[in-house]
Amino acid sequence: MANINFVPDDYVQNNESRRTNLMYLILFAVVMIALCSSFMTIKIRQRACGIKEKLVNTKMIQIQEAIEKFEELQTKRGAMMRTALTTSELLEPVPRSVLLASLTNNLPQGVSLLKLGLVQKESRQPTSTVSTSNYKAKQAKKAAAEAKVSQEKQLETHIDIEGMAPSDLQVAAYIERLSNSSLLENVALVESKEHKVEDSTTFRQFKLTAMLRKEIHLTRDDVKAIRDEAENTIWNF
Asked: Any bridge partners for residue 189, and if so which?
């Protein structure tokens, strides 16, 4: 028996069209959801990148500030070092090693140093009489202000020297050499006494005082020459 279809063809076509449209709508929805998800993911990543960029910029600014502070500290350190060198040159115009080398260079044969002391003292400035006249008093104050020097330049370096010598002749020769030195002045003998060692050998133990010359300035060549001569003196001693 043949099957008879009572459903109209238009109805069947409409159902198929609706199904097809529904499938398109579902696919469109899936595509839109995927696009929205991708867009949201991109936005989230952009925000994360933006936050990281801000952190990197903040760190770069901090590093730049640290570098600027370091350079500023280096500049201050250089200025402090120059000030310290200038002050040391004012307070100690002749390095102690150079002074010791000069004292060693002038040692006569057989004379040796036992002790060396350096003391810096303020120089005694002569006091001027005060006039009763106002004009003279003003002139005296003006002259004193113009003649005033820095405290560093008022310092005097006093030197105490102790040593041993075979006889007083070597002591006298050492005093003469120091007196002719370009670094020292006011060389004087304080004491010279007899001293015996274990094998009954007699020596003269002496003490001298001297002062470092004021406003003395040594060049690098002078310092090198003094030190080189001191090295030769030590090797020949």
From this structure: 208
Domain 96-123+153-236, classified CATH 3.30.70.60, yes or no? yes
Confidence of residue 152 (pLDDT cuts 50, 70, 90): very low
Paired with 163 in beta bridges are 113, 206
**Neighbour tally for 183: CB within 10 Å:** 22
Helix runs in the chain, H state only: 9-91, 96-105, 134-147, 168-179, 220-236
What integer is the mean pLDDT of 119-144?
57
Which of 84-88, 108-112, 117-121, 142-146 is predicted with the least confidence, judged by mean pLDDT?
142-146
Chain centroid to CA 100: 26
Token couple for 142 = 């003006």
Please say whether the beta carbons of 175 and 189 come within 8 A.
yes
Token pair for residue 171? 């002591």
Please tell me the distance from the alpha carbon of residue 117 to that of residue 159, in angstroms, as a whole number. 6
Kindly report, residue by residue over 39-98, the tens digit of the pLDDT. Answer: 899 989 888 888 888 899 998 999 999 899 888 888 888 888 777 666 555 556 677 778
Report the pLDDT value the prediction gives residue 127, as an integer from 0 to 100: 46
In this structure, the strands spanning 155-165 and 112-122 are antiparallel
pTM for this model (two decimals): 0.48
Provide the token pair at 112.
Answer: 């040796």
Q: What is the spatial distance between Cα 160 and Cα 211, in angstroms, rounded to a whole number?
A: 9
In which residue are the tokens 């004009």 written? 135
| In the chain, where the domains are located | 9-91, 96-123+153-236
Residues 210 and 106: their CA atoms lie apart, in Å, by: 14
Instruction: In whole angstroms, give the CA distance from residue 164 to residue 110.
Output: 8
